[in-house]
Design goal:
The protein has 193 residues and is of the alpha+beta class. 36% of the residues lie in helices and 20% in strands. It has one domain.
Length: 193
């Protein structure tokens, strides 16, 4: 397996090349699970919350998914798994076993700096003094080849966890639909590399 830091940088480069906000492969989990430290301040942006949901789905990590959800989404997920296990939900959403590494990308359809790939200068433009107020974004999902495979409107919840530290959570009430589109995109037909 490739070095985690190298793979995370490769995923970021793929996002820039595809013109999308983020590209999340299931091998960069360590970086996303710990949160990304941006410049001098730790700012977990909306793209990071969605990236963690995607990675949690790709890697079958229920705890990572839960940690990335706001109250509305968490309540919806709790309802989905109330009468079945996470494994049963995952099996329903992701029919068939994964045959190797998977990746799902996404593009926020807004003109804000936080909608750009982190490796782009405009992607570092989140204002710490005045962060976006619980933004919503139309999101286009792409499969591992960069082909569009779904579109959803995603709501985020932003909380301030310290003087210069913000946390972001996906806060859609229909989180099952979001998990379904992520799983569908990850399970898209494989393309030759």
């Amino acid at each position: 397996m490739a070095d985690i830091g190298v793979r995370a940088r490769l995923d970021s480069a793929i996002a820039v090349a595809l013109g999308i906000t983020s590209y999340v492969s299931d091998v960069n989990g360590f970086v996303l699970d710990k949160g990304m430290c941006h410049d001098l301040f730790e700012v977990i942006e909306p793209r990071d919350a969605l990236n963690r949901v995607i990675l949690g789905c790709e890697s079958n990590n229920e705890e990572m998914v839960k940690k990335s959800l706001g109250p509305r989404s968490r309540t919806a997920l709790d309802s989905l798994v109330a009468d079945r296990s996470w494994e049963a939900l995952k099996a329903e959403l992701w029919p068939g076993a994964s045959s190797g590494a998977v990746a799902v990308g996404h593009r926020f359809e807004v003109g804000e700096g936080w909608s750009q790939p982190w490796d782009r200068p405009e992607g570092k433009a989140l204002t710490l003094i005045n962060p976006p107020n619980n933004p919503e974004a139309e999101v286009v999902f792409v499969d591992s080849s960069g082909s569009a495979c779904g579109r959803r409107r995603i709501k985020f919840l932003i909380t301030q966890a310290g003087l210069a530290h913000y946390e972001n959570f996906v806060n859609n009430s229909d989180v099952g639909d979001l998990l379904r589109v992520v799983s569908s995109c990850a399970a898209a037909p494989e393309h030759a590399n």
